[in-house]
Design goal:
There is one protein chain. This protein is an alpha/beta fold. The protein has one domain: Nitrilase/N-carbamoyl-D-aminoacid amidohydrolase, CATH 3.60.110.10. It contains seven helices and 16 strands. The chain has helices at 20-36, 55-61, 69-81, 166-174, 188-206, 258-265, 268-271; strands spanning 6-13, 41-43, 84-93, 100-107, 113-118, 124-126, 132-134, 147-150, 153-157, 177-181, 209-212, 216-218, 224-226, 230-232, 238-241, 248-255. Strand 9 (153-157), helix 4 (166-174) and strand 10 form a beta-alpha-beta unit. Helix 1 (20-36) packs parallel to helix 3. The longest helix has 19 residues, at 188-206. It starts with 5 loop residues before the first strand and ends in a 7-residue tail after the last helix.
């Protein structure tokens, strides 16, 4: 697949509602705005299809990925607009077992889901603020890293908390990924402290673009998310960032040769050596 010299991307920032029908109504105008701004690749956040922290309400509302109304709506929209859409994640039922999946889905302009990725790392934490999270109580983690071929190069798929695990990003880059996705629904305390610095580090370490579409604001279920959707270049430079947590669209142009230049200048991917100990 021949690669163009550049691509215009649109990162959608949402404050996703607590039902799938409302979530679709919320995200569609933002995706349309991204396409109207010239985006050929449009990325949405983690939990694009629903934000509902009450598991007793959430889990019965989930369906299989192909039956989810938001995913289906975005598949139809990809066809209509002639764009690639990366659904940062949809909360869906798994094929087996009693838990759900936090699943990213990459959709091509024919509406075909060409790749999926289940979040590998579960956000099970007790924050100093008193806030707690036990993602593993509702979701089964994935078991494999995923790289997907697109006209714009290889995408390496990650979700939110994955950004704290450099080995995953290195593995994706070594498999050819030059654009890393990092859709998120980041907590506000950790977002303020760590969001930008972690994402820039992952870009610098791998010589890759990092595209992080985020949830932002205060949701119907009472959850607060950080926002500040960001696009980062392979040298760690900020290509664009929303300086707020309101719904919106970030547009950025990616010079697709920049990853090769960064990796040639700092060849960390090929300079790494095996070691023993400690």
């Amino acid at each position: 697949m021949s690669q163009p010299a550049s691509v215009r991307v649109g990162l959608v920032q949402t404050c996703t509602p607590a039902t799938q029908a409302a979530a679709l109504d919320h995200v569609v105008p933002l995706v349309r705005a991204a396409a109207a701004g010239g985006a050929q690749l449009i990325l949405t956040p983690e939990c694009t299809n629903v934000v509902q922290k009450d598991r007793a309400r959430l889990l019965p509302s989930l369906t299989a990925l192909e039956d989810d109304v938001v995913v289906q709506g975005l598949r139809d929209l990809a066809v209509e607009l002639g764009v690639w859409i990366d659904v940062g994640s949809a909360l869906v039922t798994r094929e087996a077992g009693g838990k759900a999946a936090n699943r990213q889905a990459v959709i091509d302009p024919t509406g075909t889901i060409v790749a999926t990725y289940d979040k590998l790392h579960m956000f099970d934490v007790d924050l100093p603020t008193g806030e707690t999270a036990r993602e593993s109580a509702a979701y089964e983690p994935g078991e494999r890293a995923v790289v997907v071929e697109t006209p714009f190069g290889m995408l390496g798929l990650t979700i939110c908390y994955d950004m704290r695990f450099p080995a995953l990003h290195r593995a994706l880059a070594l498999k050819g990924a030059t654009i890393l996705t990092a859709p998120a629904a980041f907590t506000r305390p950790t977002g303020e402290a760590h969001w930008e610095v972690l994402l820039r580090a992952r870009a610098i370490e791998t010589g890759s673009f990092v595209l992080a579409a985020a949830q932002g604001g205060f949701h119907e279920d009472g959850r607060g998310t950080w926002g500040h959707t960001i696009a980062i270049g392979p040298w760690g430079e900020i290509l664009g960032m929303l300086d707020h947590d309101e719904p919106g669209v970030l547009l950025a142009n990616l010079d697709l040769e920049a990853a090769a230049r960064a990796r040639a200048a700092i060849p960390a991917l090929r300079n790494a050596r095996p070691f023993t100990g400690p």
